[in-house]
Structures are given as C-alpha cells and as structure tokens.
Design a protein that fits this description.
This protein is mainly alpha-helical. It contains 6 helices and 4 strands. A two-stranded antiparallel ribbon has the order 1-4. The chain has a two-stranded antiparallel sheet with strand order 2-3. Helix 1 crosses helix 2. The protein starts with 5 loop residues before the first helix and ends in a 17-residue tail after the last helix.
C-alpha cells in the first residue's frame, strides 16, 4: 500500500496489525483506498441505500459504534466508514500541521468503500466519530464483528497526546 507518509503506515500497522507493516498489507489492504475522497463519496452515494439495508439486516438495527453516551436507534441509522474516507487527524497529531489562515489542516485520503470497512451507526455515534480514527481495540472489534463491549472505554477516539 502506498501511504503518503511512512509514519501513517506505521500508525495504522500499530493499531491494526501489532506494528507489522507486512501484515497490514496482507490483512487490511481492503480497508484503504487512496484515491481522491470526492470520487469515493460519489461511488458510495450510488450504493448507500442498498448498503444501509444490508447493514441494518446484518446488525439487526443495532448501532455497532456505541461511542456516544446517548447512543440510540431513535434517530435512525447510517452506514459509517470504520477507517474514514478522509481525515486530517494524522496531519494534526503526527506532523503537528497548523491550518493556514482561514483554512483547515489538509485532509488525507484513507478509507475504502469495501464492505469490510463499513458498519452500522446510529446518527449520534456517526456524528461524534466524523472523520476521526477509533482506537485500535475498538477497530479490531468492529472488524471482527464483536461489539459486545459496552463500557466506558468505547468512547476513546484517536488522541496521540
């Protein structure tokens, strides 16, 4: 896989593959797509209703993220990219980039539209997560389908500080 920065590959290998970059390439390459996010969003928009139906059926209308303290199915569900399509988190946290005047820190393209990178989220959890990267333990459980972990650790979003 061709990450823009070597430290990004190390970061994802650390949270997904116990630091093994070769294992990341073999086991997790389907989670990543480095094309422009607008292209990936356009492709996803064409299938999002079908994906939502499939995820709702698969997960029995139960939020898989469970990161918002008021996680609920009251507002409906949305498909969520486990690895976000794009994020500026690593540029901020690893490279300490600052926004230019009137701008945001530039985002990088990461996540794919592969079904393995999609999960069912209630609207509150999806809005809370946004473009953030979840901690390794939560990522691992989402990817293997084990979301029986309802505890306070579930809300840990990426923070490298």
């Amino acid at each position: 896989m061709q990450f823009e920065f070597p430290e990004d590959k190390k970061f994802f290998a650390g949270i997904l593959a116990e630091g093994d970059e070769d294992l990341l390439d073999v086991e997790y390459s389907d989670l990543f797509d480095f094309r422009h996010p607008a292209i990936k969003r356009w492709e996803f928009d064409k299938v999002s209703k079908k994906v939502l139906r499939e995820l709702t059926e698969k997960h029995k209308s139960e939020c898989q993220l469970r990161i918002h303290h008021e996680c609920s199915n009251d507002d409906g569900f949305e498909p969520d990219h486990i690895i976000p399509l794009s994020s500026n988190v690593l540029n901020k946290e690893l490279r300490h980039m600052k926004p230019e005047k009137g701008m945001k820190v530039v985002a990088q393209s990461f996540g794919s539209n592969n079904p393995r990178n999609l999960t069912l989220a209630c609207r509150k959890c999806n809005r809370l997560k946004k473009h953030r990267i979840l901690s390794g333990g939560i990522l691992e459980k989402l990817l293997v389908g084990d979301v029986s972990f309802v505890d306070k650790e579930r809300v840990r979003l990426l923070s490298l500080h």
